[in-house]
Amino acid sequence: MDLPCPAIPLELPSYQRKENWGAAETFYQIVRNLADTSVERSPTEGRAAKANILGPCALGFRHRDDLVEIRKILDQLGVEVNLIAPLNARPSDIARIGEADFNIVLYPEIADEAARWLERTFKQPAIRSVPIGVGATRAFIADVAELASADPTLALGDTHSRMPWWSRSVDSTYLTGKRVFIFGDATHAVAAARIARDELGFEVCGLGCYNREFAREIREAAKEYGVEPLITDDHLAVEDAIIEAAPEMVLGTQMERHIAKRLGMPCAVISAPVHVQDFPARHSPQMGFEGANVIFDTWVHPLVMGLEEHLLTMFREDFEFSDEAGASHHAAHSPKAAVAPTAGVEAAPEADVPVPEPVASEGETVWTDEATKELKKIPFFVRGKARRNTEAFAAEQGRSEIDIETLYDAKAHYAR
User: Which of 61, 109, 145, 278 has the fewest Cβ atoms nearer than 10 Å?
Assistant: First the structure.
């Protein structure tokens, strides 16, 4: 074709495979076709170890910020970066990919296949520890230090992460045992499940991914957490699974965020596909010790805000918390002066805005006003679960009406 650039043929069956597979296959073909197989690594004596960082891409979830943290770690270990690909890599960069001593597979969904080819062709070992979370970051540092024959003391001594302190603090008791449902790409989902249970004390009540190529990893992790793995790209199936699991928080993609918001559940995005708001202007990594801080903020704050909103609801009848109350130092509690109506114009009556209440359709149980009022006292982030449990209990007992007695009977029943 006489083109001024390399031409690589690709066979991507778009109706049979998904985007992640297409990205992995494309990167694999680029590496296979452009890598100079005649390249030989120089002797390791007297020089720093070299590593390729594989997997980051322009539209990946926090990939650019992750790279900043990974390079910090490699600098502390005295490891030189040979190249980063596919992000910003040129054909000439790919040609010298064989010069590195080993590969770091940051995002297996994109880079695993290419890394396996490099292992066979250049005898380059690969590090597949994904440094998401404090424990995984420490394991990643240890793995890199071993391959690079480096001292990990400086990198392991990083004190920037505050997640371990928080998980040992008294405040964590307010959130320990919270049930979380996790769904996304396999790498981020498995990492999120590990952090949720081992570093934050949450309970994993659901785990799944949308990329079938990594179903084995999800099944192994789900077995460890005692849950049924969910491997699907059908968002409706994910929504049904979330409703059935009745979690107190959802960690997922942008789609799961929409589902959680409809169901009134706290949520956080942990994986692509994502919305533009998940490409923040600030530094916001997921990897490394600083990434652990970001994860803490992203996951815990929705739950804490839920507690704060519940407290505001509890005290909304208090004069200090009413909508009309201003700052206390500005005489907020003084009675407001009455506003005289304009001459010739009758004052409009105040609108009585109805508050949505549980409404029963034909064949369902009916909630009394007293039970509905009592239900609203339950924190909003568990109110849906309390309502479903109560209705299920009433159906089992054959009660057509839910009053306060039924509500507390159901509470006692499920507390056993």
Answer: 278
Work out the percent of the chain whose per-residue pLDDT is above 70.
Answer: 81
Q: What CA–CA distance (Å, rounded) separates 227 from 214? A: 17
* Average pLDDT score over the chain: 85
The whole-number pLDDT of residue 12 equals 82
Nearest to 79 by CA among 37, 38, 44: 44
Give helix 215-225 / helix 186-194 axis angle, nearest 10°.
Answer: 20
What is the length of the chain?
Answer: 416
Q: How far apart are CA 184 and CA 130, in angstroms?
A: 15
Q: Where does the pLDDT of residue 150 fall: very low under 50, low under 70, confident under 90, or very high at 90 and above?
A: very high
Q: How far is 125 from 101, CA to CA, in rounded Å?
A: 8
Give the model confidence (pLDDT) of 15-67 as tens digits.
Answer: 667 788 889 999 999 999 999 999 988 888 889 999 999 999 998 999 999 99
Do 393 and 410 form a contact (C-beta atoms < 8 A)? Answer: yes
336 pLDDT higher than 60: no
d(C-alpha 204, C-alpha 228), whole Å: 11
Contact 56, 64 (CB under 8 A): yes
3-state secondary structure of 132: coil
Q: What is the pTM of this model?
A: 0.75
Give yes or no for a contact between 177 and 201, defined as CB atoms under 8 angstroms apart: yes
Helical segments of 54-201, H only: 63-77, 91-95, 108-122, 134-148, 153-156, 163-168, 186-194
Q: Which of 36, 151, 171, 240 is catalytic?
A: 171
Is 409 part of the annotated catalytic residue set? no
| Gap between the Cα atoms of 209 and 140, Å rounded | 23
